[in-house]
Design a protein that fits this description.
Helix content is 49%, strand content 2%. By secondary structure, it is an all-alpha fold. α2 (34-47) packs across α3 (52-65), α2 runs antiparallel to α6 and α8 crosses α9.
């Protein structure tokens, strides 16, 4: 499909190819893959206080260091944290990196209770994306009551660095909510 002249969400219209590819191929698409969900959550944690462009620029390094976000492997990375902190290709925020390791442990604990991450997250929206009808990205919410509810539950379940703003961004990325603008070519796809 020719994607050069397509109407996208305004935040992806700036000509930045990496942002456009992320928008066109990932953002807002319902995700049911546990490892991919863990990656999206982890990247949203890393993005807190930074631009999404910064995270996308370092994504390949995160995928390499965190073994494609295989939380079963990451759960035992605490001893590797000093080495990870030395990697200049990453965002080297100790609290965020510790949160990824901690969250891998929480994710494994969930799976040991016969839950998948997909089931865990999709149960919050009754298995269907919530479709908003936004006219432009200026109207994108940063938080809502569901994000607060999910954040509270995740904290109870042992997750860290999962405040409601991060969780709402994760919900958008994972397609739990469809926040594509109504003029975007992807609005009616999901």
């Amino acid at each position: 499909m020719q994607t050069v002249n397509l109407k996208r969400c305004s935040w992806a219209q700036n000509g930045n190819l990496l942002l456009q590819q992320y928008h066109d191929n990932e953002w807002g698409r319902p995700c049911y893959n546990d490892q991919k969900l863990f990656e999206l959550l982890s990247l949203e944690i890393m993005q807190a206080g930074l631009s999404w462009q910064t995270v996308l620029n370092k994504r390949a390094a995160f995928q390499q260091v965190f073994v494609n976000f295989d939380f079963y492997q990451i759960q035992s990375f605490s001893a590797k944290l000093p080495e990870i902190m030395q990697n200049s290709h990453l965002i080297r925020n100790r609290l965020k990196l510790q949160a990824i390791i901690n969250n891998a442990q929480a994710a494994v604990a969930l799976t040991q209770q016969n839950h998948t991450l997909a089931d865990y997250f999709w149960n919050f929206v009754a298995g269907q994306p919530i479709k908003h009808h936004l006219t432009n990205s200026q109207k994108l919410p940063k938080i809502d009551s569901l994000a607060k509810q999910i954040s509270q539950q995740m904290k109870k379940d042992g997750f860290k660095f999962v405040g409601p703003v991060i969780i709402y961004s994760f919900m958008q990325a994972a397609g739990l909510v469809n926040d594509h603008e109504i003029s975007c070519y992807l609005f009616d796809k999901f």
